[in-house]
Model the fold of this input.
Amino acid sequence: MKDTSASRVDLLGNVKKRCTYCGTNTQLTMDHVPPKCLFPSPRPSDLITVPSCCRCNSGFQLDDEYFFFVLSVLSNGRETHAGQILFQKTVRNFRRPEKVAFKKKVLRGLRKLPVTSDGGVYLGETWAIRIEPLRLKATMSRIVRALVWKECLSTSNRYVVDIFFADWLKSAVWKDDTIRDIIQILVDVPLKGLRCGQFRYRYVTTNEDENTSFWWITFHHKLHFFAIVHPPTLLIPHDP
Done:
């Protein structure tokens, strides 16, 4: 993914001629990353754009809408003005007739969970929404591929993108010292992203393999992901 043989200008010209996600060179348009729907109006003027074929671009809509729903619920307006606007938009969307099926599906996934203090004292119960992780990962994989295009000038659809939720990384399940060391390295890498601060990321590449990179991505200071981009031959443990 690093530019080792051609000038950056020439390489950029080549990658602009292919879809970032599937590699085709026909019916190209520009895709906004992250999706525009994740931001309140007026939207940031510095959203990343990458070349995308019409088929890939149109295929993202439903997963993008679901990602927006989860992000708006987690933001819920208590910490940022942007989060409040997103949550209000979700409430309005739920009232639209065409969203009845989606609303029923969300309500069926509601469940009560126990709440305890840091010391383990039972405090009662709260409502929680069942999350569909594969749909979140679909949107995140696309975002990471777009960031690889932007930062590393690569449109290869042969590499693998593994997405992990930050909450899982904090659990006792992951005991890989190497991954913990990589995350610590990422902490010291300067942040990049939108000037508004609603989307930020850090990344590092490896000297041993130019097709491997590691990413830490944050939305609205609330939703965090860790991603590994690697060749198919590299085996990565998955969250349970």
Q: What stands out?
A: Residues 133-152 form the longest helix (20 residues). Strands lie at 28-33, 48-53, 110-116, 122-129, 160-165, 192-193, 199-205, 213-219, 223-230. The longest strand covers residues 122-129. Confidence is low (pLDDT under 50) at residues 1-12.
